[in-house]
Write a structure and sequence with these properties.
heterodimer, A: two-stranded antiparallel sheet, 6 helices, 47% helix, B: Alpha-Beta Plaits, 2 domains, two-stranded antiparallel ribbon, 30% helix
Chain lengths: 136, 255
């Protein structure tokens, strides 16, 4: 079997694939792709309302559940086994700003790390106010 | 052979023990639940009474308005067309536009009246909301879920009291002092007074009631005959805005 104008076709294919995969090469060569999310965890508190694995994967479900519980059903506090959880001696409210952000008080070094890496844009911050001045 | 009398004795004794143990179990488990008791304010029917006479003595006083708007991050737009208001002051003849008495006590028409969402018993705004972003809670508060509001403004059209405002612009730049504990709203969302539902849940009275220097605002449970609001309502004559619409507003004006 003879490939007519073989070198032209093969050269064309090489050029095509080179261009086609250009974004991959650019990403691999640039520094940005090597930036992995680096979360800064709160130093003074060790325990979250759920374990780390659950929070990694399902914190958005938890926040949605909190939102509906508080706004629509007027259940305000985090309850486990019939007991209200406390933080620093105060009952823990189901609230992004009054619970989560009291410990994770730097949005740039916590929330944004993964959200930017995965290019998700949650609209929490359109209304809820992020803590100012980073870590206190 | 067991006779009827002994059978009843045994059965009732056993039943009694079972019942007693159940009661003690419930009591002890309840005690565990109350370890961190939450002191939220609860009512069957929240309502407010406003002493117009007291309020009118200081017509320029805006303590309640400032307290409310600061607490709830209500923006202050320069253009009155864009105005957002949860609680505001107006003249009597504007507030009670359908009252038909021409010959009122002198000056009454120009008295300053405090206006806010009436938290009606039959709120027309909740009926028209297509996303159930606003609804009447069991304790009577006409609540809003700003997450769900799509900004169609049917509720604004339905409300006969002008209690609802629409964010035509992004409100964030127009809020002077942000209260980080309360969210702002976004462009395209309706907002109004919520009787400070979030403060009630923490056991605090509404911000306006607390802020009023002349104690002209009364807030309480209308279904409780011993409550302060029922006391003032039974002592003084009160009127409500546009009662003929049968929305049954729950903000009473002591005139």
């Amino acid at each position: 079997m003879k490939l007519y104008d073989g070198w032209k076709i093969i050269l064309g294919l090489i050029v095509f694939f080179a261009f086609f995969s250009l974004p991959v090469w650019i990403n691999l060569s640039s520094a940005q792709s090597r930036v992995k999310p680096q979360l800064e965890y709160p130093k003074d508190s060790k325990q979250c309302v759920e374990n780390k694995d659950y929070m990694n994967h399902y914190h958005m479900n938890l926040l949605n559940f909190w939102r509906d519980s508080v706004v629509r059903m007027n259940y305000r506090y985090v309850v486990r086994n019939g007991v209200v959880l406390t933080h620093n001696g105060k009952p823990l409210e189901m609230s992004l700003t009054l619970a989560c952000l009291k410990c994770h008080n730097n949005k740039q070094k916590f929330c944004d790390q993964c959200h930017n890496y995965l290019d998700v844009k949650p609209y929490c911050w359109d209304c809820h106010i992020e803590p100012k001045g980073g870590l206190k | 052979m067991i006779n009827r009398r002994n059978f009843l004795k045994i059965v009732s004794f056993g039943g009694g023990i079972a019942l007693a143990s159940k009661i003690t179990f419930e009591l002890t488990s309840q005690e565990n639940n109350n370890e961190h008791k939450i002191e939220g304010l609860k009512a069957k029917r929240w309502a407010m009474a406003i002493d117009v006479q007291k309020c009118d003595r200081t017509p320029d006083c805006k303590e309640c308005v400032v307290a409310c708007h600061n607490y709830h991050n209500v923006p202050n737009f320069d253009n009155p067309k864009d105005e957002i208001k949860w609680i505001w002051k107006d003249k009597f003849h504007n507030a009670f536009i359908t009252q038909e008495n021409i010959y009122l006590p002198s000056g009454m028409n120009h008295q300053t009246v405090l206006l806010l969402c009436n938290h009606c018993d039959k709120p027309p705004c909740t009926n028209v909301c297509p996303t159930q972003a606003t609804w009447k809670r069991e304790d009577g508060i006409v609540m809003m879920d700003w997450h769900r509001c799509i900004g169609c403004r049917y509720c604004i059209a339905a409300c006969p009291y002008g209690s609802r405002s629409f964010n035509w612009k992004d409100p964030r730049p127009y809020i002077k002092n942000l209260n980080p504990d309360f969210p702002t709203r976004t462009r395209g969302v309706v907002e109004k007074c919520t009787f400070c539902a979030e403060r009630l849940a923490r056991g605090q009275m509404p911000a306006c009631v607390v802020a009023c220097p002349s104690k002209a605002l009364f807030f309480g449970d209308l279904s409780d005959p011993g409550s302060e609001i029922r006391q003032v309502l039974s002592e003084r004559f009160s009127i409500r805005r546009k009662p003929e619409l049968s929305t049954s507003p729950e903000v009473y004006y002591l005139v």
